[in-house]
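User: Sequence recovery, please. Input:
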């Protein structure tokens, strides 16, 4: 039964208290009308203390997230920008940053990480020898076809939900579809995300995928801490200046005047159910946020630190591939090749934390993380197995 306003209430209780139970929560479709966000459809989920919005026309990514009115998401300087204004191949492949904002930004579907040029022989078209990819791929700026949304009661449980399809396709290129379902229960602290990426074409197609989960102030603040069951840190983008900025992987500083981006890849251990839990906790607020994914689906983890004044963000980034990139994935035999009508599934949960001690104990019980804020990068990228090469 929903827990709302300090009470546990049945469906009948809610019906007695209002002419429309959607007064207490529901899913509402709206369209924005001004500036760069003009025309973008949003779904607003109201689940009691939890409120979040889904940008339908931006791959059904989660834009805003609030807990009892406190924002937990990051808002980038570009703001929410209509997909029709995005220039994917601009600025040497880095124009992605002009459309980068919100809690969840999905990366893929056939490429992630930095701009790259890769062979296109798998598409069997003589006129296209290579394909150029921009930063983190195309999917995050593709509008979804909204296939349904609303509220569903199962006894005294009310499930808020939405579903959509995001098609990334080209003649003489990939034909991939992301089928996305988002759910949360009325009165809960958790969002459930179910993704299915399908090769809806008939040519072997590379697939790479990760979630760029971005947290901002006031949750992100000096003294907040990054929690994860880290067993190794294979890589740090900033290894040559590892301690120069005085910022390690674990303890969050205040916004910095001249901070230069830091990125880490961590190796993590899963719990007995095969899940990996990563969190940011803020003891001063008594709030935190946890990302839960399956180790067999998203085996790699990046940590993005952007502590520059005016941009202040932390990214939790579970991924299908190592940070080495597209070409290395092919060379190492770790690229995911989807054959005709083949698919990959990704099941994740995003949870607002109010019992920080319990969350930290849960993660520590899986594996104690390094106490040193500067664990020495090992350079060891474990083999990602079970990925037949089909090119």
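Assistant: Recovered sequence (391 residues):
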């Amino acid at each position: 039964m929903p827990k709302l306003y300090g009470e546990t209430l049945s469906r009948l209780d809610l019906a007695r208290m209002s002419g429309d139970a959607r007064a207490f929560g529901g899913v509402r479709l709206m369209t924005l009308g001004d500036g760069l966000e003009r025309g973008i459809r949003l779904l607003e989920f109201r689940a009691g203390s939890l409120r979040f919005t889904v940008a339908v026309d931006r791959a059904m990514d989660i834009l805003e997230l609030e807990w009892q009115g406190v924002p937990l998401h990051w808002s980038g300087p570009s703001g929410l920008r209509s997909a029709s204004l995005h220039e994917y191949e601009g600025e040497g492949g880095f124009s992605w940053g002009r459309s980068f904002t919100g809690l969840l930004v999905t990366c893929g579907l056939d490429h992630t990480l930095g701009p790259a040029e890769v062979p296109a022989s798998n598409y069997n078209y003589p006129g296209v020898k290579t394909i150029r990819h921009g930063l983190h791929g195309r999917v995050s700026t593709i509008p979804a076809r909204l296939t349904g949304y609303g509220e569903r009661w199962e006894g005294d449980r009310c499930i808020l939900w939405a579903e959509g399809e995001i098609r990334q396709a080209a003649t003489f290129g990939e034909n991939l579809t992301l089928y996305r379902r988002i759910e949360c229960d009325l009165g809960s602290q958790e969002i459930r995300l179910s993704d299915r990426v399908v090769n809806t074409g008939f040519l072997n197609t590379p697939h790479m995928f990760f979630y760029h989960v971005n947290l901002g102030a006031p949750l992100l603040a000096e003294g907040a801490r990054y929690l994860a069951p880290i067993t190794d840190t294979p890589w740090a983008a900033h290894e040559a200046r590892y301690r120069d900025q005085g910022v390690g992987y674990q303890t969050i500083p205040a916004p910095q005047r001249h901070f230069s981006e830091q990125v880490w890849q961590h190796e993590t251990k899963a719990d007995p159910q095969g899940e990996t839990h990563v969190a940011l906790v803020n003891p001063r607020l008594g709030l935190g946020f946890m990302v839960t994914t399956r180790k067999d689906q998203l085996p790699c983890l990046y940590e993005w630190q952007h502590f520059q004044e005016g941009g202040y963000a932390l990214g939790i980034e579970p991924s299908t591939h190592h940070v080495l990139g597209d070409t290395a994935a092919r060379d190492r035999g770790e690229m995911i090749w989807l054959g005709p009508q083949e698919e990959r599934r990704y099941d994740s949960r995003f949870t607002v934390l109010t019992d920080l001690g319990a969350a930290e104990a849960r993660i520590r019980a899986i594996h104690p993380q390094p106490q040193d804020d500067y664990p020495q990068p090992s350079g060891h990228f474990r083999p990602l197995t079970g990925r037949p090469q089909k090119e």
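The longest helix spans residues 356-366.
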